[in-house]
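INPUT
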Amino acid sequence: MTAPNPRIGIIGTGAIGGFYGVMLARAGYDVHFLLRSEYETVLQRGLRINSTVHGSLHLDAVQAYRSAADMPKCDWLLVGAKSTSNPELAPLIVEAAGEDAKVVVLQNGLRVEEDLRQVLPNNIHLLGGLCFICAHRSALGVVEHQALGGVNLGYHSGSAATLEQQQALVEEGVAMFRAVGVDSNAADNLVQARWQKLVWNVPYNGLSVLLDAGTAPLMSNPDSRALVRSIMLEACGAAAACGHPLPDVLVDRMMMATDHMPNYLPSMYHDHAHGRPLELDAIYAAPLVAAANAGFAMPKTEALYQALCFIAGRAAR
Amino acid sequence: MTAPNPRIGIIGTGAIGGFYGVMLARAGYDVHFLLRSEYETVLQRGLRINSTVHGSLHLDAVQAYRSAADMPKCDWLLVGAKSTSNPELAPLIVEAAGEDAKVVVLQNGLRVEEDLRQVLPNNIHLLGGLCFICAHRSALGVVEHQALGGVNLGYHSGSAATLEQQQALVEEGVAMFRAVGVDSNAADNLVQARWQKLVWNVPYNGLSVLLDAGTAPLMSNPDSRALVRSIMLEACGAAAACGHPLPDVLVDRMMMATDHMPNYLPSMYHDHAHGRPLELDAIYAAPLVAAANAGFAMPKTEALYQALCFIAGRAAR
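OUTPUT
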């Protein structure tokens, strides 16, 4: 294929940013990677994706940057860093964003776009991206891609005045991902899409930390399986109470999909194992607050969150 | 004091059986200890209690037995073993019980007397004992007594036909404990007393295992503290739904009492650390079933129980 026009910046080249950045760059897109601790390694050795789906992918000549000020102005910025870094990333995003840029927040949880929106000029479009992918970073510049890989996009805010303009921008992003072999769809309702993703993330992320276990053991023990299911149902109930009802079959479908996944350790497990901050605000606190404001109780989710706060607080001491 | 009459048997000489047995024996009671793994050590070195309340107590000439068949028939039997051992202990209790013996189950949780009752001849009196003590076994034949020490007694079942007869038997036990310096009171309603104790045990036992923490860190972190409190409130609600309302001030009083305790690792923590079975049935499953039968939900307690089942199941694998 010929190189398409848009210039793409990757803010946070971890598992998510690294995977999508490499997929886009290998297909000929002009991709620029902002890196911190991995800068030297990636400059010398490039980026590698060990994928059970695509095989071993290597990007040799990586356009790598230590500073956002050195990056060219980008048309699309994919934010793959953890939501816990958003306050410090915000100025870098502004710096790397071109006129009328599209910024896609590839993060889990609720309210991850709100803080970022405060600091972005209004001409910049903010989109949310929901990644359905099993991937983690195994070494500097190396991503293990275990399964899936899709990303759904929804418009959050910016200067697109009409719904048609917003949809056109989303379709532009969807087409870009599809062009490089990544499954992608438009999410008409971003908040609902975020709730839907939470139905998976709320049980598995936290329980993987609390019980030191991946999806397979959590699903094969009848008690933890029942706990996963009831936390999923709480998230569905909260979504409905907040005005974003989800399909009735969602929980059964997610349980079944997880049964068919390889044993997966969610991102929070890796964050905890490496002493990194946990995404507790986006995945737990924000949904709990939204549910409480709507008069809906999520007691098992709250218990899990409180236990995780203890673990995180103690780890930070 | 002169040696009182009753002959006392200790079934399960762990922290609880060891502590009360030594207190009774040192005061002159005729106490006989049934032991398993500690038999040889106790025979050679006796029993030691390192107590912050009573100082260092040593019982030198321990009347120790490997087999219940070798024990003399006892008037009182104090069952200090874990409730998880009750099925295998039942025949030993029958063997060591004299005519009209009083068997006191010094265990936590609900329904701990029920199974035992099935195998005891009707002439034997079954009592429940609620121990308010911070103690654990630190080595073979050695008990660390950290704080408190009281034991409240209530009549469960047996041949005492009238309430007066039952109360007289309970008072006999209360007087025996008081005579050796152990705080003791009659519990008029044994089931209510068991629920009241559960209000403490349900949060702290499980959370100590799940979060690998004693009472002090659990109480000093605001999130785990809130979790403890809400689980206590669930236990109070369940007790009330089951027809045993507890005093309104109980939760605040227990929180405050725990704040003033030394950092305490509950028995379930030690059981888990040593790979012993956890008392999940008595402390979690039985209360959850009782609450559910009364139409009362305990979601945070259930989440904790489900997480503990996962941990126990995995540990047993």
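end of record. Chain A has a mean pLDDT of 94.
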